[in-house]
Amino acid sequence: MSDDRVSDVRERDGAEGPRGSARGWHTVQLAVFGFVGLCGVLKSGTPPVPRWLEAAAGVLVLAALAVACWATYLVGRVAWPLPGRALDAARAGRRLRSGLWLTFLAVLLVAVATATAWWPSPADANGTALVRVTTSAGSVCGTLGSGAGHGRVRVLAGGRALDVPLARVTRLSPAGGCP
Fold it and tell me: pTM for the complete prediction?
């Protein structure tokens, strides 16, 4: 074999390591890509967040989608190079590392966007959180009080303290507001 052919074989063989790794990571990236898309579509029934925070979360999810697309492209070029293009191991390794860092950045952006759902629930005029206590006989909305006694929950609603036996409570949830 001539020296030129041996170096060509070495270049191709040296790129197989990054190519094989890129093919494995590409599968992970497609899962991240789907996760980013799913998080951008889903919206929970949490209490309303400020409009600016909702807009910021939307921008972060779109940014995560763009970053995930670019990362998938970079790793895909290493995993499946274009025909007739020589792929050296150093360049393939750089592209692979860049694609992986961008993948992690996309996941981080989605995590930050998702954190906006943990906005505090609205509070009443006293600064305490509102709750809705539901029993088989109906529901009451107000704030939780103390001193209800063993096996009871005290709800302060409409200037009255209502002690509800825990055995009758079917649901206790945060309330966005009380009528």
Answer: 0.56
Q: How far apart are CA 44 and CA 35, in angstroms?
A: 16
pLDDT digits over 37-92, tens only? 676 556 555 556 778 888 888 899 889 889 988 998 998 888 888 787 767 788 88
- Cβ proximity of 169 and 153 under 8 Å: yes
